[in-house]
Amino acid sequence: MMKTLIYFHGFQSGAGTATVGRFRRCLPDWRVEAPDIPQDPLEALSFLRALCAELRPDVVLGTSLGAFYAHQMVGYRRIAVNPALHLSEMPEILHVGQYHYLQPRLNGETTFEITDEIIRHFREAEQRQWDHLRDRDGRAEPILGFFGTRDTTVDCRSDFEQHYGTACTASFDGEHRMTDRIVSEVLAPAVRTLA
Fold this sequence. Notes:
Layout: E1 3-8, H1 18-26, E2 30-33, H2 41-55, E3 59-63, H3 65-70, E4 78-81, E5 97-100, E6 111-114, H4 116-128, H5 131-135, E7 143-148, H6 157-164, E8 169-172, H7 180-194
Parallel strand pairs: 1-2, 1-3, 3-4, 4-7, 7-8
Antiparallel strand pairs: 5-6
């Protein structure tokens, strides 16, 4: 039976990102699913949990903001790449205003708006992102964190390691955005190993 990977994109991105195509090329024997994620993080978490419950993926992988969501998908094998765990503390990225998607969404939308309420919801979601670790019954859930050695956009490695441990983390030679090489040489093999 074909295994399933769900990919969670980053901020300003969508299901049509080139990273999805890279995973489909590198994992031709896998079903690779990728949704357009809502901008409000509380809505996004609810949507993504329901999607995972429906599709029952073998691996959930997210990059940047998508990694913030992926690490909270309790009960699934997860990979978090350059996770943006504190976006509400980065006003240079997240602020009130109109934004353009890096590529059109599946529904054709090209812009979106961030409001004060959405930023407040990011703060709430960030404060609760580790709750699943307090509630677990002592079992270690499979998760891997990958961090680009030249990522100047987000640096949340110490926070990730504080909660999941250093044994779950690895570095790769790269920046914040994914390239063909990173997907083919680092992430696709990790997906196969974790599954």
